[in-house]
Amino acid sequence: MASISSQLLFLTTSPRTPEKMIPEIELLINKFDGKKWDKETQMAFMEALREENFYHGTGTNDPAFSARDRINRAPKSLGFITLQPTIRLTPAGEQLLTSKRKDEVFLRQMLKFQLPSPYHKPTEMAAAFCVKPYLEMLRLVRTMGTLKFDELQIFGMQLTDYHEFDQIVKKINEFRIEKAENKGNYRLFKADFLRRELTTIYQKRIAKGEIKTRESNDKSLKKFLDTQASNMRDYADSCFRYLRATGLVAVSQVGKSLSIVKAREKDVDYILKNVRREPSVFATEVEYATYLGKDTTPKLLTDNKMLLSRKIKTEFPNIQIPAKIKIPELKNLFFSLLDQRKEESIAAQITALKNYDLYDDIQKTFEQIKNNELYDTPLMLEWNTWRAMTMLDGGKIKANLNFDDYGKPLSTAAGNLADIVCDYGAFYVCVEVTMSTGQRQYEMEGEPVMRHLGKMKINTNKPCYCLFVAPSINEACVVHFYTLHHLNLTLYGGKSVIVPLPLDIFQKMIEDSYKVNYVPDPSHVKAFFDASIKNARMAHDEVEWYEKMKDEALHWL
After folding, report:
1. Strand partners, 494
2. Three-class SS of 119-183
3. What does the pLDDT read at residue 416?
4. What's the mean pLDDT in 479-506?
5. Which has the closest alpha carbon to 7: 198, 222, 214?
6. Per-residue confidence at 365, pLDDT binned at 50, 70, 90?
7. Quick one: 406 exposed, middle or buried, by C-beta within 10 A (0-12, 13-18, 19+)?
């Protein structure tokens, strides 16, 4: 049982993106189903996880703790697995691993998550919780129309009791008025407002001098308030990402806000009307685990045949629905129609990209990424690089990310493939992108990039190369990728040709492809990587090779 000492709303933050728990749950069940979740199993799980292509990290400092952090949080808290007396997959967990519509599975489980719960025990200094967090955050988005990230952080995280919902709405409206009247710097305005809110929330602790944080010996009030503000931001960010996984909300990357997807408003209204706000009382953890693990509760609009039929006729008026069709078949029909619409939307994007209709938008988005103007920059970097690769040359370009029902980027995929896979017929190119910088870039990306390329070479049995793009390239990555040009490693399919490029130079390659009076073809791509092999062989060191490859990129056409 986890203890909660916060006076703010508690939400699971691990994993940061909900889709990433899916392969880890599958690994846990495949290898450790029926075993006790003890320290030995936890260490064995982390050892197995480090061998998987989808895992980015090390978990070496305290493997058992790392395992608990990954499994005891979202997978257990949302009812996908149980760990007592042994590791088991729940019916909801089975649906998560097998269902084609993960969004509906996530939605049911989030709506059941509640505080207090037998899994989470508040301490004496914690808030008096009486809330289903995701249900109330969904209500808040629907009520406000559009909810900014800052509003979710400052006010949404104060909603520890659903009876205070109207008061939170009032505070947001007052904040919006003050914000509109503010003539100074918004960041300073927000920081001052947040500090005042936190001082009020924690006034009793501050008065008693109980402001030391676990992570630091600094006992100052500033450190305490900064820590609470950081926690609020982490929980708000988690809420953004988890709500997005339900398919009910849209995220404005530029506005950094949430709103209900227009076509899903009736779904949300059905939930807000029919799902009970009051948390349930459970005598034991087993009773709570059974409640969480059910895969058919709570009921959604799509479980109602009449309402679902009406929804299908509204969104797809040309579809004829058989009179005697049963609910499972009706849902399958609806989901297949959504998938078809998504594929058509992506196909239309590809056509526009290959015609260079979206060139200006691509370059603008890259500038927004570099300036940190978007909410989810890693996702947008991956999506925009896919668009760029689709536009600048021939080939079948596939992004390993999740799209929503309208073909918009939803989340990065938790898989064992490269971020982007480019099939040029005679050869392949994988493209890896990252927002990480410094030594962390090398630690997080160095080995996985090599692994993804190696797997591609083995699976395709064709020449394969890799392009690595980031806003800036760490020196350790340059050394690593240069060295791989010379190492013949059987495990990774021989020598690895990986070329790192700063985003600025990659943008110049896109600009060149737009300006030339012909359409670049795979031969231009192949020549670029052939030049890397030649330059690596002739260069005196990694610095010379890297400088030559940047020059090659600037003159690739």
Report:
1. 489
2. CEEECCCCCCCEECHHHHHHHHHHHHCEEEHHHHHHCHHHCCEHHHHHHHHHHHHHHHHHHHHCC
3. 65
4. 92
5. 198
6. very high
7. middle
| Domain boundaries of the chain, sorted by first residue | 2-293, 356-554
Per-residue pLDDT for 15 more than 60? Answer: yes
Closest CA to 500 of 445, 461, 420: 445
Q: What is the mean pLDDT of residues 89-116?
A: 94
Q: Is the pLDDT assigned to residue 475 strictly greater than 90?
A: yes
Q: Are strands 409-412 and 420-423 parallel, antiparallel or unpaired?
A: unpaired
On the question of pLDDT at 54 being above 70, the answer is: no
CA atoms within 13 A on the CB side of 204: 6
Q: How far is CA 199 from CA 7, 204, 522, in A?
A: 12, 9, 60
Give the whole-angstrom CA distance, residue 285 versus residue 276.
20
- Distances in Å between the Cα of 440 and the Cα atoms of 146, 239, 264, 525 are 35, 25, 39, 29
CB of 497 closer than 8 Å to CB of 533? yes
Q: Tell me, rounded to whole angstroms, the distance of Cα 109 from its chain centroid.
A: 18
What is the spatial distance between Cα 64 and Cα 84, in angstroms, rounded to a whole number?
Answer: 17
Cβ–Cβ < 8 Å for 61, 423: no
Fold of 2-293: FokI Restriction Endonuclease; Chain A, domain 1 (3.90.241)
Only one residue has tokens 């059974």, namely: 290
Complete DSSP assignment for 453-513: HHHHHHHH-S-EEEEEEESS--HHHHHHHHHHTT--BGGGTBS--EEEEEHHHHHHHHHHH
Taken in order 378, 382, 383, 389, the sign of the CA dihedral is positive
CA distance 229 to 191: 9
> Could you say which DSSP state residue 115 is in?
B
Instruction: List the CATH code of the domain at 356-554.
Output: 3.40.91.50
Name residue 503's amino acid: L
Report the chain's C-alpha Rg in angstroms. Answer: 25
CA distance 532 to 463: 14
Structure tokens, 324: 């005697």
pLDDT (average), residues 471-487: 94
CA 160 to chain centre: 25
Q: Which comes out higher in pLDDT, residue 219 or 168?
A: 168
- Res 57 pLDDT > 60: no
- Amino acid, single-letter form, for residue 124: E
Report yes or no: 71 and 28 within 8 Å, Cβ to Cβ: yes
Check whether 59 has a pLDDT greater than 60.
Answer: no
For residues 417 and 455, give the distance between their C-alpha atoms in angstroms, rounded to a whole number.
Answer: 8
Q: What is the DSSP letter of 20?
A: G
* Residue 55: predicted pLDDT: 65
